[in-house]
Amino acid sequence: MTTPDRAKSSAAIHAGLESPVTVVRVAHVSVNCHGALEAARTFYGKTLDLPEIERPEIEGVPGYWFRAGDTELHLVGSKLLGAGKHAGTPPIDPSATHHCFAVADLDAACAALDAAGIAMVSGTQESKSGTVVQVWCCDPGGNVVELQQHRTLPPSH
Predict the structure, then answer these.
(1) Which of 39, 41, 101, 155 is a good FRET partner for 107, with 20 to 30 A between their CA atoms?
(2) 154 domain residue, yes or no
(3) What is the pTM of this model?
(4) pLDDT value of position 47
């Protein structure tokens, strides 16, 4: 649930005020398919013919990744973590269905969110191309949004 102060801060950002956040592209959309992961893999990979791409091992989180143009679709097959599972944080659940924006400057984006009073949680993910820093927050409607530093995409197979 959005507090009035948080909604006001978010509204101020969107009211045409200059912001240091530059979204470069939609990096990925993550869809939690707990209980139907294999069926979802077949649907997206076979029915929709999306190419499956390599996915790093994420402990306790089964899943598959696909390429859709220059965006990735991440299927996740874990139970939702639930709101507030990160000690001392607001109800932000990185395992929930969410969309991820690649931004030009992640530090500047985090500073803008912080200045607007928008709570965040962060994490990292190891891949062959290095460590990816992930930051999650909620939009005023309670939807989970992830931000990552923009990086060049590897070719799909």
Answers:
(1) 155
(2) no
(3) 0.66
(4) 83
In the block, tokens 């649907």 appear at 43
For the record, the structure tokens of 61 come out as 């989180």
3-state secondary structure (DSSP) of residue 10? helix
Domain for residue 118, yes or no? yes
User: Closest Cα partner for 73 from 103, 119, 40, 47?
Assistant: 40
Residue 156 lies in a domain: no
Are 97 and 136 within 8 A, CB to CB?
no
- CATH number, residue 79: 3.10.180.10
Q: What secondary structure does DSSP assign to 91-148, as a single string?
A: S--TTSSEEEEEES-HHHHHHHHHHTT---EEEEEEETTEEEEEEEEE-TTS-EEEEE
Between CA 31 and CA 86 the distance in angstroms is 20
Number of folded domains that form the chain? 1
Q: Please tell me the predicted confidence (pLDDT) of residue 6.
A: 41
54-112 pLDDT, tens digit each: 999 888 889 999 999 889 999 998 887 664 444 444 578 888 889 999 999 999 999 98
DSSP state of 77: -
3-state DSSP call for residue 28?
Answer: strand
